[in-house]
Amino acid sequence: xxxxxxxxxxxxxxxxxxxxxxxxxxxxxxxxxxxxxxxxxxxxxxxxxxxxxxxxxxxxxxxxxxxxxxxxxxxxxxxxxxxxxxxxxxxxxxxxxxxxxxxxxxxxxxxxxxxxxxxxxxxxxxxxxxxxxxxxxxxxxxxxxxxxxxxxxxxxxxxxxxxxxxxxxxxxxxxxxxxxxxx
Length: 183
Known about the structure:
- The protein is α/β, with parallel strands linked by helices and about 180 residues long.
- The protein has helices at about 25-35, 55-75, 95-105, 120-125, 155-160, 165-180; strands at about 10-15, 40-45, 80, 110, 130, 135-140, 160-165.
- The protein contains six helices and seven strands, in the order βαβαβαβαββαβα.
- The termini are close together.
């Protein structure tokens, strides 16, 4: 069931490394259309009104982006985040911050883009690892424990969010959580 008044539709912050991709506008426009069909309003990080001119410098721009994104998350009713691996085996650190911030504010967070299998399996496939005498998986080079517990990501993410396979499932779940009755 979609609310008739657009102002009454839940606003959803769309987090992810998508902001760095050359086709980010297409990605966010697609996500926003999907949100609209589900009775939600998608809000992308690039929607933040940022006041900046080149003379202000990079520090000012960085602060303006941070302030804008934090304001969008505070104003949102929930967060949908793309936690695909980005520049390595982990999700984008900025996206992880946004997820944690939304969770701390008590907003529902639905995440997608996580590769199949456990985090430990992905690390063991990418780095030489071995089990110690107690059965813990460790990186062979430096002995660092590889977090296990059967989780697909760090447990702080898997225990605080709803993990679904893709963006479509994330939008559908968020609609059920906030709008109700969405097929």
